[in-house]
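stuck on this chain:
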Amino acid sequence: MATIRKRGNTYQIRVSCGYDTNGNQVIQTKTWKPEPKMTPKQIEKELNRQAVMFEEACQNGMLTSNIKFQEFAEQWFREYAELKLKTQTIRCYHNNEKRVYEAIGHMKLSKITTRNIQQFINELATEKRYDKNGKELQPLAPKTIKNYISFISSIFDYAIKMQIVSSNPCKNAVLPSPKPKEREIYTLDEVQHMLELFENESEANYKYTIFFTLAAFTGLRRGELLGLEWKDFDWDNQLVKVVRTSEYTKEKGIYTDTPKTKSSLRIIKLPIEVMDKLRVFRAWQNDYKIELGDKWVECDRLFTKWNGEPMGMRSPYKYFEKFCKRTGMRFVNIHLFRHFNASVLISNGVDVKTVQGCLGHSSAVTTLQIYAHSFQEAQAKAMDSVASCILGTPKDSSDE
């Protein structure tokens, strides 16, 4: 039964929720303040209604908790994140802790509102940042701000499941819009030239040429490429299964994990020319293992260090940077090979659902958001083709 106490111009509603494990009575409280123009009768009626609603919420487990955000976040890491989330995600969230705790860590979980979250977002977006030499840096990227809010939102989602709060204040907060960024990906001619240059590379660099050949033909993420093992290949049907990734943290070193999302578990068809290169590479690796003898550490990976252990995350980058300097090739980030693959698929009329499956995105919406410009260009070309057929006009040679 709820009890009500008048305190100045407010009312405190108290509900007993039993006893904790130490035998102490658990009391939940709520403060209600009537509107200035309410009559005594209206106040009495609304106060009783608030008391009934609060008591029902307590009985249903929706308790107004006195726990502070930082304290609950630390519980969330132990009870949920460390059991359910990927190592890299946990690492990212730990990196966000300091700023988040400074902003809302001291606040009671139940008292944090959408307005508090919005203020934090606005502070992140407008904060002046400087490097160690005092030079002003660019504001935080919208994607970085989104990661901060994702961390907070995940904690509130868990609090809802634990019936500590009834809503997530992050849901209606407005995030800054990412600025469209033109990706400096390779053209088809550049990739073809790169493959020609690979033919002149030494045997010692053969594994790297295979790495970037697969990157161009499959669009796999770096970790997915480094996680490939020989048993993942179906040689008769020219298929490769993507079932693991190779990751790195300072604490764990190189370790194996599952792909980024469930959709990232996929099977990709490879052209016979690429399969032939893989056969040559496998034969070379087998000969090298025999030559190295007991020093070889067996792990079945395609891409390894000199002794067979899984290759480091930055090794392909370092090789490719030197390769481009040697050959005069324009240097691009490894991840842009993934965007090249996607652009080729889209420009050749592949539908969004198929592109999503090839890239291992969690949804077609993600694919459309990332490659909206490429799909728009493909759609424009398709409309030109329709007009050309209906009107009988020749295609503009510049569209070829």
